[in-house]
Design brief:
- This protein is α+β, with helices and mostly antiparallel strands.
- It has three domains: about 90 residues, Malate/L-lactate/L-sulpholactate dehydrogenase, four-helix barrel (Hypothetical Oxidoreductase Yiak, Chain: A, domain 1); about 180 residues, Ribosomal Protein S8, Chain: A, domain 1; about 50 residues, Hypothetical oxidoreductase yiak, domain 3 (Wheat Germ Agglutinin (Isolectin 2), domain 1), CATH 3.30.60.50.
- The chain contains eleven helices and twelve strands.
- It has a seven-stranded mixed beta sheet with strand order 2-3-4-11-5-6-7, sandwiched between helices.
- α1 packs across α2 and α3 packs parallel to α11.
- It is globular, with a radius of gyration of 20 Å.
- It starts with a strand and ends in a 5-residue tail after the last helix.
Amino acid sequence: MSIIIQAPELEKTIASLFSAVGSTPEEARQVAANLVLANLCGHDSHGVGMAPRYVDAVLEKNLTPNAHVQTRVDTGTLLGLDGQNGFGQNVGVQAMQMAFERVRAHGSCIMSLSNAHHLGRIGHYAEMAVENHWISIHFVSVNSRPIVAPFGGGDGRFGTNPCCIGIPVGVGKDTREPFILDFATSRVAQGKMRVAHNEGRSVEPGTLIDENGQPTNNPGVVVVPQSNGKMGALMPFGQYKGFGLAVACELLGGALSGGGTWHKEADGRRAVLNSMLTIVIDPKRLGTENSFGQETTEFLDWLRKSPNAPGTEGVTLAGEPERKKRADRLKNGVPIDDATWQEIVNTARLVGVSI
């Protein structure tokens, strides 16, 4: 079962939790709005269900409200930033805005951000770039309980390590909706397993292994400790290909940024720290704006003309499902499963907020 809440009311409720643990009203609203936006886009795994974990991270002093980005290196087109364990939705936006200043000045920027708390849906940062008709590429590491097994391995060794690419489509009057490719390098996001567990659903074969390294359809193996105290693990998508990309995200997002990599046993903390390598490019400054715009529209139109495969609705491009879901949920409200809502209510009681 689930309840339906309109987005503005949901934002207000979630913001009250962050205000209660020390965030300024502005930060609380920004973080809450980002979480609700993830729900609106259909990514409930990165939505308001994360709020109780954020509050726990603040209480355990591994998430610092109202932190600001610290600049370690600034050479113009290269930015090395530290999020100082701040809310990812806050320091992540600050970091992107700093990168955008360099793109306006130089046409491109390579920006690394270390030690940000959970950045949320990485597609949000790509959407920020394509609004300016710029390209953005993101490699993200996850410094938390290792939840994904390496290809050929039998337990969790690293995080879901997202990769995201945002590409504007068209140019001038023929500007189209952008291409926003945003995915975890695990077969599914960890948060989707939390949602499935809360809803009492099984998941597809090939998604998980249990605490003994055996295949399972039970999402609870990566949500709650099992009988022997251990946890199961998610599998990488695409076998060795997804595994290889996950390693690249760990090394580029984590090691290169200075945020570090994961190579220890789980320590039980609730905090989720992300580090991210971002590349932003202005096609206009490359001198290809017009040809790039034309080629993007012509190629995507070519793809859409492919005949529908049996049992499908035809070709769907990255970013389209999110836009469709967003329109629906803005109109009809955001569904929150009962277990997730109860976790939010319990957290509100913990910090003295009445819902």
